[in-house]
Design goal:
Elements: E1 3-4, E2 12-13, E3 54-56, H1 62-71, E4 73-75, E5 86-90, E6 93-97, H2 102-110, E7 123-137, E8 140-151, E9 156-160, E10 180-184, E11 187-193, E12 206-213, E13 217-225, E14 233-234, E15 238-245, E16 254-256, E17 265-266
Parallel strand pairs: 4-7, 10-17, 13-16
Antiparallel strand pairs: 1-15, 2-14, 3-9, 5-6, 7-8, 8-9, 10-11, 11-15, 12-13
Length: 268
């Protein structure tokens, strides 16, 4: 079933795309070069796709949301003691890990976002506790040990209580915005852009998945086969599910799209 992206834009284009003959498939899009991901590292590096700061259950007030986006946070409580190392379950299995002190985690929470003004005061964090929180990774939403900070209004923000060395390119990963995947082993179902709507009088074109594999990553994209006329269309982006079979199990490799964005893969 086709799905509309939440951020779809409904502006109309007066002509989009060239005309491809039905007998000649559209040019094959090979995507970026293979990603040099350390697939043999143990534990497998955590690939964080979302922010290092997770707002648990949302902000309690609009003022806090605005203050956090403009000026970040300021801790005014007493940092608790750091727990002893313990076993943590990661996407590739359990690992014995040490935890970073709350003061170190505050460096990720306290700084204001880049490029933001500071017209509002930072949001005050009044207490901290060690616990867990879910973060968005390339293997779906995953619970990680976290420092959980409470604001004056009762909002809770969390950041991983793990060393940055356990993450791959922390804060630099580009997530895929038009693809997601489910499955395991060699068989995946990847949601990617649907074919363009046909122009009046044309037969519908079709999209087929294209896969490029390396030892460290798998690139998935689509190519369009059929006639794509030069008629007005909306920018509303639709996604279709595409079955993809790999030459070998995905394993620890990254799944990326044609722009090099990392695709989140969840098991069925």
């Amino acid at each position: 079933m086709r799905r509309l992206l939440v951020l779809a834009v409904t502006a109309v284009l007066a002509g989009c795309g060239a005309t491809h003959d039905a007998a000649s498939p559209a040019p094959l899009v090979t995507g970026p070069a293979p990603v040099d991901f350390p697939v043999t590292a143990k534990p497998r590096p955590i690939v964080l796709l979302g922010s290092r700061v997770e707002v648990v259950d949302g902000y309690r007030s609009g003022e806090e949301k605005l203050g956090a986006s403009e000026s970040g946070f300021e801790f005014v409580g007493t940092p608790p003691a750091t727990p002893e190392p313990a076993t943590v379950t990661l996407p590739d299995g359990p690992a014995q890990l040490a935890f970073v002190p709350a003061a170190d985690a505050l460096q990720a929470v306290g700084a204001p976002p880049r490029g933001k003004g500071q017209q509002n005061a930072p949001v005050r964090l009044v207490s901290a506790e060690f616990g867990t929180a879910e973060f968005t990774t390339d293997r779906g939403r995953w619970p990680l040990p976290a420092w959980r900070f409470t604001t004056e209004a009762g909002s809770v923000v969390a950041t991983p209580a793990l060393s940055p060395d356990l993450f791959w390119r922390l804060g630099e990963v580009q997530p895929a915005v038009t693809a997601n995947a489910t499955g395991d082993g060699t068989d995946l179902t990847v949601s990617m852009p649907a074919p363009p709507e046909p122009c009046p009088g044309d037969e519908p074109a079709r999209n087929e998945p294209v896969v490029s594999e390396s030892e460290t990553s798998v690139t998935v994209t689509v190519r369009t086969i059929g006639k794509v006329g030069d008629c007005p269309r909306t920018l509303a982006l639709k996604l279709d599910p595409y079955p993809v079979r790999l030459a070998k199990p995905l394993g620890n490799r990254l799944l990326v799209d044609a722009q090099g964005g990392v695709v989140a893969v969840t098991t069925r």
